[in-house]
Amino acid sequence: MFDSRATAHEFLDRPDCDPELAAASYRFMELVNGYFGGIRVVRRFLHAETAGRHDAAPLRVLDIGSGSCDIPLAVSRWAQVRGIPLHFTCLEMADHAMDIARGQLAKAGDPAVRLLQEDVFSHHPAEPYDCAVASMCFHHFSNEHILALLRRLRGFVRGSVLINDLRRSRLADFAARLLLTGTGMSAGVRHDALLSIRRGFTIRELKALLGQLGGTTVSVAPARWFRIAAIIRFNQGENT
């Protein structure tokens, strides 16, 4: 079960996903991101990207598959407190996620976070981004789609891409089962959460996949609470 990535689809992948299941799933993901490292990984990445930067303009960040926008909003609050200028453009396709995200953005009233209902595979920005972030998103893609997307991103992302995702293992599955039971999540949320882990990556597997990219510098490392953090830095002047 854990020797290779699962290919089954989650309920959230379906256009007709039940709105109540979607809302419960995003609440669970917000809990996991808040308490088990999802936000921390993005903060660490963007803190490094802005270190020593002398440009007064905000760092332009593309957030791919933003879901309820919990991570961009949390990181934007963190950055504002520290005087770090950031601007997020968040892409999300699913109607059920857009409904939740719009409510979150209206409540937050943060002009530094913009939401677009667009497919990243057809997104055409007016100007390049400085970097891109994808949290709990890449495990939804096949290996072929991951490589195709990264090759496309290098056309409008100047610097680097962070893949902030799930590390696949039996121990991660066991821990998730305990958390799902302890929080009383429904069978639908349980199904998607456990399938997400089986669709995740091992360190060796993701290194080998990203190693197929040319003109990049790649680092892949474990992060706390069964996460994986990969940074793909595009080498200036090189294309593939």
UniProtKB/TrEMBL annotation:
| InterPro entries attached to this UniProt entry | Methyltransf_25, SAM-dependent_MTases_sf
Q: Which GO terms describe its molecular function?
A: methyltransferase activity
Q: Does the keyword Methyltransferase apply?
A: yes
**Which residue range or ranges hold the Methyltransferase domain?**
61-155
Q: Which UniProt keywords apply?
A: Methyltransferase, Transferase
Q: Does the keyword Methyltransferase apply?
A: yes
Alphabetical GO biological process terms: methylation
Q: Name one Pfam family in it.
A: Methyltransf_25
Under Gene3D superfamilies, the record lists:
Vaccinia Virus protein VP39
* Superkingdom of the organism of origin: Bacteria
Q: What is this protein called?
A: Methyltransferase type 12
